[in-house]
Write a structure and sequence with these properties.
It is a single chain. The protein is α+β, with helices and mostly antiparallel strands. The protein has two domains: 87 residues, no CATH class; 257 residues, Jelly Rolls. It has five helices and 17 strands. The protein is elongated. The termini are far apart. The structure holds 2-acetamido-2-deoxy-beta-D-glucopyranose and calcium ion.
């Protein structure tokens, strides 16, 4: 942005402001801040809308009706495992019975750079709230078809896990409501702590009422320019709600998509209705393409991320209101000051008589 271009705007802003007496204050720095903040907010929302140009459904990485030959035919792109079975309307990972594990795994390694996965799932069962479990997980990991304690998949996994956790295992649960959806990036040494519902390693999440709903429940995992965004549509309003987001997340290529689930003493039916993978088309600069490939998944500035989770900084909206109220406060102070000054002058005049 060149300097000469911005000056007339500032001049115009100043002359506009001098028209309204309320805003006639000497220091226009606050107002400039306000103006810039509004511009930033507007450009932000525009950027969000235009982030990618197009998306393309990739059938080889998608699981959708009709599930012809799924898990059996040699031409199928998916394998079934454990209790997983296919019906005309869904892939049931586990039935509403104790101690079951089931999974469905893609057979094809995945190499796309920017993508979005829409998962249509259903969790239902006889148990009352908090007498059901344990939930399901969506994966994009180095290993496939493993058994284990993380929603029916191995621990110390390498790659991405998104968990729909329907049972609070930790006793201190007042900090989050269940079912709780969260994500984690495994690097082979990090482990998912089932007794703590994965708190120590999760990269954020949200509560989502996803069990025994009358409407359809969806989640969306978007990976775009190394930013991972998790969104949910669980209220039957056909609208995505933000759940969690991590920037600077680096995921190696050649991993496998999967979905898994496990029941323990408590159970539920855990069904996948579809998993649709879209490739996202993005504008790129040459520098973007020269970016290093990682071998182990990681998040840049992990420490920074953890700080951000613990003590949230001022959001743009908070900043906007802080500035707004500062200006209003200054206005009130000015009026009070004028009144006091007027009284004082009057008193002084009186004293002279
Ligand atoms: C995995 O991540 C943890 C926590 O960030 C770190 O301490 C550990 O060294 C990492 N392991 C590998 C193999 O990179
Ligand atoms: Ca749990």
């Amino acid at each position: 942005m060149d300097v000469t271009g911005t000056t007339p705007t500032l001049d115009r802003l100043t002359s506009f402001l001098s028209l309204c007496p309320m805003f006639r204050i000497k220091n226009i720095r606050e107002l400039t801040f306000l103006f810039i903040t509004v511009c930033m907010l507007m450009s932000q929302s525009l950027a969000d809308e235009q982030e990618f140009m197009e998306d393309f459904l990739k059938r080889e990485f998608s699981l959708a009706k009709p599930y012809r030959g799924l898990g059996f035919s040699s031409s199928s792109q998916w394998d079934l495992m454990g209790t997983a079975l296919v019906t005309p309307d869904y892939v049931r990972l586990t039935p509403d019975l104790q101690s079951r594990q089931g999974a469905v795994w893609s057979r094809i390694p995945f190499f796309l750079r920017d993508w979005e996965l829409k998962v249509h799932f259903k969790i239902s069962g006889q148990g009352k709230k908090n007498f059901n479990g344990d939930g399901l997980a969506i994966w994009l990991t180095k290993d496939r078809m493993q058994n284990g304690p993380v929603f029916g998949n191995m621990n110390q996994f390498v790659g991405l896990g998104v968990f729909v956790d329907t049972y609070p295992n930790a006793e201190k649960t007042h900090d989050r409501a269940f079912p709780y959806i969260s994500m984690m990036l495994g690097n082979g040494t990090l482990s998912y702590d089932h007794d703590q519902d994965g708190r120590s390693a999760d990269l954020g999440g949200c509560a989502a009422m996803v069990r025994n709903t009358v409407h359809d429940t969806f989640l969306l995992i978007r990976y775009l320019n190394n930013r991972l965004t998790l969104m949910v549509d669980v209220d039957g309003k056909q609208e995505w709600k933000d759940c969690a987001e991590v920037t600077g997340l680096r995921l190696p290529k050649g991993y496998f998509f999967g979905a898994s689930s496990a029941t323990g003493d408590l159970s539920d039916n855990h069904d996948i209705i579809s998993m649709k993978l879209y490739e996202l088309m993005v504008h790129r600069t040459p520098e973007d393409d020269e970016e290093e490939e990682v071998i182990i998944p990681r998040v840049d500035n992990m420490e920074q991320f953890q700080v951000a989770v613990e003590e949230e900084g001022m959001s743009t909206v908070q900043f906007f209101f802080t500035i707004l109220f500062s200006i209003l406060g200054l206005g009130v102070l000015a009026v009070v000051g004028l009144v006091v000054y007027g009284r004082w002058k009057e008193n002084r005049r009186k004293r002279f008589y």
